[in-house]
# Entry
Amino acid sequence: MSGEHPMKDPLVSILIPCYNEAKTLPGLLQAIYEQTYPRSRLEVIIADGLSEDGSREVIEAFRASHPDLSLKVIPNPRRIIPAALNVAIQAARGDILLRLDAHSHPAADYVERCVEALEKGLGDNVGGIWEIRPGGEGWMARAIAVAVSHPLGAGDARYRLKGPAGEVDTVPFGAFRRSLIERIGPFDESLLTNEDYEFNTRIRQQGGHIWLDPNIRSVYYARTTLAALIRQYARYGYWKWKMLRRYPRSLRWRQAVPPLFVLTCLIGAVLSPFVQWIAWLWGLEMTLYLGLLIFVSLQQAIRHRDPWLFPGLLLAFPSIHFAWGGAFLWSMLHG
# Structure
């Protein structure tokens, strides 16, 4: 651990939403404990959504064996992430607030680099890249981890693609000063997901900057099953439309492509038997899409020297596209 300079180093409050995370909490808490930032200038606040899997016992055991790390648990009865972040912010004492996820594993210098970027004034909210790894054993878990970190699954999201340092539209697990909350307000509790993107949109609308530094690194564990992946991306798509109704100018091409693709697939499937030119265009679209899936899946299987990636990616990529795009369209109709 680096030398401690209490007058120099700002107090950092690490905010962690939690619900039934007993399996991943020990690794996350150990990673926080091993940070290079002075431990006396850290506090960890876990907003627990009334977990039922022993998460509280895991936290208490860690606190008992690591008494030199400030660690507190507060209830989050609403059990949604933005509410968890807001109650954690209210309980936080730090000048700098840093959000982490219970599924993440920050690099040892994560906090130190975030504070450094804020101190240099590089951004109002700063963050880094995800090193996405399989969340479990098996060929499907490996394929999902590759799919969500590939441009065909992630679009141009630079935090998933290990992009260069610079301004971006959003970062995961951002670090920001408390004064930012006072300026733009708390996380929006009407959104069950996309709360980070909405928060960053408000920052940019008010003239602020989001900064991504590829040296700020954390491991993120992807979903382990196809069903979990579909649920995750359906949730993303559904709530993305809710957010875009308020901030239509925040739409990015990577967010528009899946619903447009799903819409053209549906139109083609319905009208092809009746209109020849639509049948021809729909057939061309499906041929090109299938060809792209086969090419990328085979390429990644060869690159990773893992033949099971080929069938896994042929399932994972369409699951992402149709779950995200279909839920987006359903949210439009439902709204």
Summary: The chain has two domains: 12-225, 246-334. Confidence is low (pLDDT under 50) at residues 1-7. The two ends are 51 Å apart (CA to CA).
